[in-house]
Amino acid sequence: AQTVTQSQPEMSVQEAETVTLSCTYDTSESDYYLFWYKQPPSRQMILVIRQEAYKQQNATENRFSVNFQKAAKSFSLKISDSQLGDAAMYFCASLRGTSYGKLTFGQGTILTVHP
Amino acid sequence: GAVVSQHPSWVICKSGTSVKIECRSLDFQATTMFWYRQFPKQSLMLMATSNEGSKATYEQGVEKDKFLINHASLTLSTLTVTSAHPEDSSFYICSASPGAGGYEQYFGPGTRLTVT
Lengths: 115, 116
Prior knowledge:
The structure holds two protein chains of two kinds.
Chain A lengths: L2 E3 L4 E5 L4 E3 L2 E3 L5 E8 L6 E7 L7 E2 L2 E6 L4 E6 L8 E9 L6 E3 L3 E6 L1
Parallel strand pairs in A: 2-12
Antiparallel strand pairs in A: 1-4, 3-9, 5-6, 5-10, 7-8, 8-9, 10-11, 10-12
Chain B lengths: L3 E4 L2 E4 L5 E7 L6 E7 L5 E8 L5 E2 L8 E7 L2 E6 L8 E8 L8 E2 L3 E5 L1
Parallel strand pairs in B: 2-11
Antiparallel strand pairs in B: 1-3, 3-8, 4-5, 4-9, 5-6, 7-8, 9-10, 9-11
């Protein structure tokens, strides 16, 4: 079974600063995908970024980037130039290629952005 | 594109009654739909996976007779909570995937169920 661990229940950052959210995962499979989802107070899940395990290059989406360390099974999310709208709960998730869409979520990290 | 809706967004029902929650993919055909349950400030827990025209696959520990899932078409899945009890009060989220692999999943806005 896959497990995803987010060891930071809460994080905070000043507006315009950079913050990194940690995530580690455990899988024995070679074909898998990793995701970061954002859940704002509205509770709508929003995909922030995804990474295919076979790709060595770290995924980037505007101010969001990941540091994918495959050997260490680490998948951290870096948010640059933090904005007030980034305040949300962030979930790291993994998807095995053979799991037919079953996402495994981490416990979540609540991010607070201070003006 | 890729919008998933849920109805209702909030429902209150009395203990012992049943309530149905709908999940619709508005602009794509969903090969697979997923139902999650989320308690406040906690993670999402997968309840079941449904494919159009097939019986849903339930996760271990989820009562299939209590949480009835029907994936009637490629754009509609329903979750019926039967004989609801206060402990069933939770936030229920569906997601839909256009492909069998689930690599792309789009989430609905969720439904808050309160059982009194």
